[in-house]
Amino acid sequence: MISDTILNVVDLHKKYGDSIALDGVSFRVRKGETKVIIGPNGSGKTTLLKCLNLLVKPDKGRIWLGNIEITDPRININKIRRKIGFVFQDFNLFHHLTVLNNVMIGLVKVRKLKKHQAYKKAVDALSTVGLDNTLYHKYPAQLSGGQKQRVAIARALAMDPVIMLYDEPTSSLDPQFVNEVLQVIRKLAKNGVTSIIVTHQIDFALEIADEIIVMHKGRIIESGRPTELLSNPQNILTKKILIRNFRTLR
């Protein structure tokens, strides 16, 4: 394995009954790299992301996080998940906990930090995502969608993951809150946080990605640097996606 590889995915397959969700997916992610996965609805993007920390178990294939094969049935997956930050479409915050406690809870319960240590890391993470400290003692119901998603990113970031996974992080947001979340992800990527992002925000993908992966019917049909895909897409579906979604090509 290449020494700077954070994640290595080899020949992943997943079926739900007769429906094929993943059909032989392979790729690798290097340290500090941002990969963005695009494709039509139902192409397997979210299933792939959930397989990467075994929220969904693949039927076949292997995944390495660093030098550890996480698809090995003997692995302690809960220990591995501490190293993988996952940001969901619908925030998944604890409604009965304040913003600060939503970020602290994993640090105290999972990483076993003392409360003063967890407090400092939580405040640092919330500051990183640009959340005003006047909101730290609010509850999720008192926040906008954009603020909730930034709390979710801070919660994942506070755990010091080796890689961040984002599953359509703006899909549940009203349009006026989309950019504030994208700005946070831009900042983290610029600071070298290794990331995989599933998104329909094609202009954002082209701006932020080191490599774009295009999926269709459970397969990777094309991948490459944004400039390569823009100037010379090899697959007709890639071209249609880019033309339909990227404003400068209209």
Characterize the structure shown.
The chain is an alpha/beta fold and 250 residues long. The chain has two domains: 1-83 and 164-250, 3-Layer(aba) Sandwich (Rossmann fold); 93-160, ABC transporter ATPase like fold, CATH 1.20.1580. The chain has nine helices and ten strands. A six-stranded mixed β-sheet has the order 6-7-8-3-9-10, sandwiched between helices. Strand 1 (5-16) and strand 2 (19-30) form a beta hairpin. The mean pLDDT is 92.
Whole-number tally of structural domains? 2
Tell me the strand percentage band.
15-25%
Helicity, as a percent range = 25-40%
CATH topology of the largest domain: the name is Rossmann fold
Report the span from N to C terminus.
41 Å
Number of helices: 9
Number of strands: 10
Q: Could you list the spans in which at least 5 consecutive residues all have pLDDT below 50?
A: none
> Structural class per helix/strand content?
alpha/beta
What CATH first level of the largest domain would be assigned? Alpha Beta
CATH architecture identity of the largest domain: 3-Layer(aba) Sandwich
Give the SSE order as H and E letters. EEEHEEHEHHHEHEHEEHH
Layout of SSEs?
Layout: E1 5-16, E2 19-30, E3 34-38, H1 45-51, E4 60-65, E5 68-69, H2 77-81, E6 84-87, H3 99-109, H4 115-128, H5 145-158, E7 163-167, H6 175-190, E8 195-198, H7 202-208, E9 211-216, E10 219-224, H8 226-231, H9 236-245
Parallel strand pairs: 3-8, 3-9, 6-7, 7-8
Antiparallel strand pairs: 1-2, 1-4, 4-5, 9-10
